Amino acid sequence: MSKRAMGHSKTGTLLAMVGAATISLGALAGCEAPDWENPDYVAKMLKDGESAEKSLALENLRKFPEDRYSEVAPALVEIYMAGERDAKDAMSYLVQWRVSEAVDAYIKEMETDAAGYAGAAAEALGILDHRAAVPKMIAALQATDNNERKQGILRGMARMSDPQMVAPMVELLKLDADNFPIALHAYACEILGNIGQENPGAVNEEARDMVVLGMFLSNNTNQNTNRECGLAAQQIGPTMVPHLVKTFNGEHQAVNQLLLKYNQGPDYAFPANQAKLVSAIRLGSMRAPEAVELFMADLKSEKSAPEALSGRQSVSWRLKEGNATDEMILALGDLGNPQARELLEGIVGVEFVNDEWDEITDGLIELQLRQDAATALARLGDRAALPALMEMAKKGVIVDLEKRFVMLAQNGQPGKEEERYQFNWMVAQAYAMLAEAEQRETYQGLIDATDEGGLKEKYKSFLPAFDVAAECGGAGDAAAQAACYGTKVEDENEIVRAKAAYELSRLPAEVASPVVAEALSTQNLETRELLTFAGYRVATPALAEAVGTLLEEEKGRSNDAARRDRNRLKLLHAYALRSSQGSAQAAE
């Protein structure tokens, strides 16, 4: 055969092969040209196509419209449940889509991790609130030794609030935080808190005790679960108070043993009174009425380290005691019980601190405690404290601090007046935050009697508080006043913003709560912190809903200030959710 003839033969064979392939593809597609950009075609191939076409359909699901997920989810479930070669790809879509048609597939994946998505499948079950799966989630959690899978399953459980989860969470909190990921303990507290928010009676005595213990858990990389377990306590509510009081009094043996284990040299950073500090913070954030007498009794006692302590251990105890003392002072203002006024006035004064607390104070600590007592009086809201505040604004002295500035002046290096008289102007600020418009004349007298230029100017900077009090305080009834203060929350002057937040906290909840709920959306986090304080005073279910919406809207923020703000909002949210159930909860 000639070369030309041979070439013609090869060409004919090739054309025949191409033709056969075309006929074959046409037959597979039912004489329909592939159209992978068309959702209808993708859905059809996924449900009815051959194996190769299903694989191509899976590849083209990335752009599939969300409103049609449910249409093709059964086909993906079938591919996964049959263990076909594309099972992993099918599950990868299902765990992203989180559709109810796939719950059986999610359960199987959670139990087997066949496609490597056990955690994501459990989370999908939680998002779908598929509570029928809870027993299987618990079984899967307990069956695996893989801590990554455990955390994935816990993420799913954290989306639901089922009492069946209480006992398994207690067991997680018993795990050694150094030998198991502390994230397990954090999730356990989160889940117990969610259950307690919905059904506080489901969280039993042991679980409540373990939540308190969880506030103290730490690992060898200094990670801890104080925030998660503290929020859980807030969510569970008043039934936590006896456990926290026991801890405050040093009677929670498991906490005591844990602190003893942690309190190692060279820092000795976990002295026994760490229990008092942490429980004081939580009792204050819960606005527990039982804390008033507890804190007042402690603040009236002498502050001295146990004789058995020496060196760094003694120093650590004193620092922790100072921190706890400060937290109790501020909490008495937050709690709002007028019974605390005289005690706080005494702390703002000079004799009480120097006589009783000499061992835990120096000039700077005394300054902190006494100026925070002034802030607490402003938060307390009892205007009978105004004379005591004015007296200290005029002549209050931090003796050790004054000696330091006298020495600096003698050495030719006089300090700034604003720093030297910080106590005076901070007490004056508290006075302005507490005062009504008619106290302006008294306050002006303070300014007129002040010779130091820097201090005089600092006093003047608080005058706008009296202006806004005159304008909004004279606006009409309580509703009109609340509306007026609400317009001041975004004022360019920080004193006006702060005064507005304080006064909103003193108005009836029925008029102030809607204003505070709306004002909380301010992006000024310092103002929002004060509005959060006001929110506790005027808490309602509607305010809780507004805070919940705000938390959802701002979920992506991650800097330190935003995290602190978010934690404050979560605590307020938990408190406000329970605001309409106070009497029922107290009876449980």
Folded structure, characterized:
The chain is an all-alpha fold. Among the domains are: 8-37, no CATH class; 237-381; 487-588, no CATH class. Helices cover 68% and strands 0% of the residues. It has 35 helices and no strands. The longest helix has 26 residues, at 3-28. Residues 1-30 and 583-588 have low confidence and may be disordered.
- From the N-terminal CA to the C-terminal CA, the straight-line distance is 102 Å
Largest beta sheet, briefly?
Answer: none
Overall shape: it is: globular
Oligomer: single chain
Number of strands: 0
Structural class: mainly alpha
Proportion of residues in helical segments: 55-70%
Mean pLDDT, to the nearest integer, reads: 90
Summarize this structure briefly.
By secondary structure, the protein is an all-alpha fold. It has 35 helices and no strands. Among the domains are: 8-37, no CATH class; 237-381; 487-588, no CATH class.
Set down the secondary structure blueprint.
Elements: H1 3-28, H2 39-48, H3 51-59, H4 69-81, H5 87-97, H6 103-112, H7 118-127, H8 134-143, H9 147-157, H10 166-173, H11 182-198, H12 205-214, H13 226-236, H14 241-248, H15 253-262, H16 274-285, H17 291-299, H18 311-335, H19 341-348, H20 351-356, H21 363-380, H22 386-395, H23 399-410, H24 417-420, H25 422-434, H26 440-448, H27 453-460, H28 464-473, H29 478-487, H30 494-504, H31 509-519, H32 525-537, H33 541-553, H34 560-577, H35 582-586
Helix pairs in contact: 2-3, 4-5, 5-7, 6-7, 7-9, 8-9, 9-11, 10-11, 10-12, 11-13, 12-13, 13-34, 14-16, 16-18, 17-18, 18-21, 19-21, 21-25, 22-25, 26-27, 28-29, 28-30, 29-31, 30-32, 31-32, 31-33, 32-34, 33-34
